[in-house]
Amino acid sequence: MDTRNPSAPSRARSAPAGTPTRTRRHGTGGGIIHENTRHTTRFVVIGNHLVQHEELSLLAIGLGCHIQSLPSGAGADIKSLTARFPEGPTRIAAALRELEAHGYLRRERVRTSTGRIVTRTVSCNQPGSRPEAPRREPADTGCPDRPARPAATDRPARPRDPRPRKALPAVPQPATTLPQLVQAATDLLTDLRRHDPRLLLSTAETAHLAPGVAAWLERDVHPTAVRRTLTTGLPEEPLHRPAALLAHRLTDRLPPPAPFRAPAAAPPLRHPLRNCEGCDRGFRAPATEARCRDCRAAAAARP
């Protein structure tokens, strides 16, 4: 019973590269079955915290995987991604904002050597961690039975934005704070998102900007003109702080007060029409006068 077989291998041998492996996940009926083939070229390692993220949309997850697979220097702006995929610029921009909010993407404004300001996109494959020094990573076999590397956590906590949130710029203040005027300004700001989805403002941002819009309405500017000023000529790239841009436009483009208009003169007094008690002719006179002018003159001429 204690005789060993010298021809038996000491351990199971790995399948050679290119041999597909078939593995069934949990359950005996339905469920996913993986047929994996080992990658040796043209592949990228992406964490499950991205591809199985519980808060990101499917479009954001797919776009994040695509961006992480791009080589350095490739175009990752809205125009390049819209040309590559069938989704429109609005959906692409919304997915980029999702990735940016969860720390998988960072966009920075940098100045080139020629003085031109461009947007640089930084892709983060592990949000909240510091970038490591470049090193060679072993190729992923793609086999689900192979133990994965130990990770600090499968789903990292939402990273905090390292950039402090700046206060919004000041806006003009109206001379009067009538409730009707403030409500009209608030309604105008709330309606901006129908003209441009990027102008979706929070309650605090709306309350900060409402006095500035009220100052425009107080200067006899039509609401349509105010809306056109705030929504026309916006940059095509994503708006990082739309409320700050609106505050700048409300202050920088504030028109002068409406020209002075003298109050109109009061209309002449018109007495009610009544019949004369003497000649029964109609005439206008104060209520104290019962006879017309001719009857009063005739009565005064009598001895």
Provide a short characterization of the protein structure.
This protein has 303 residues and is α+β, with helices and mostly antiparallel strands. The chain has helices spanning 48-51, 58-69, 78-84, 89-101, 179-190, 192-195, 203-218, 223-231, 242-252, 293-301, and strands spanning 21-24, 33-36, 105-111, 117-123, 273-275, 282-284. Among the domains are: 44-127 and 154-161, Orthogonal Bundle (Arc Repressor Mutant, subunit A), CATH 1.10.10; 179-252, no CATH class.
Q: Rg, please?
A: 38 Å
Treating each run of at least 4 consecutive H or I residues as one helix, how many helices?
10
State mean pLDDT (0 to 100 scale).
80
* Total strand segments: 6
**What would CATH call the architecture of the domain at 44-127 and 154-161?**
Orthogonal Bundle
Query: Strand order within the widest sheet?
Result: 1-2
Q: Largest beta sheet, briefly?
A: 2 strands, antiparallel
CATH fold name of the domain at 44-127 and 154-161 = Arc Repressor Mutant, subunit A
Query: Structural class given helices, strands, pairing?
Result: alpha+beta
- For the termini, the CA-CA separation is 164 Å
Shape: rod-shaped
List low-pLDDT spans: 137-148, 150-154
Strand percentage lies at 5-15%
Order of helices and strands: EEHHHHEEHHHHHEEH
Assign the CATH class of the domain at 44-127 and 154-161: Mainly Alpha
Q: In which range does the helix fraction lie?
A: 25-40%
How would you name the CATH homologous superfamily of the domain at 44-127 and 154-161?
Winged helix-like DNA-binding domain superfamily/Winged helix DNA-binding domain
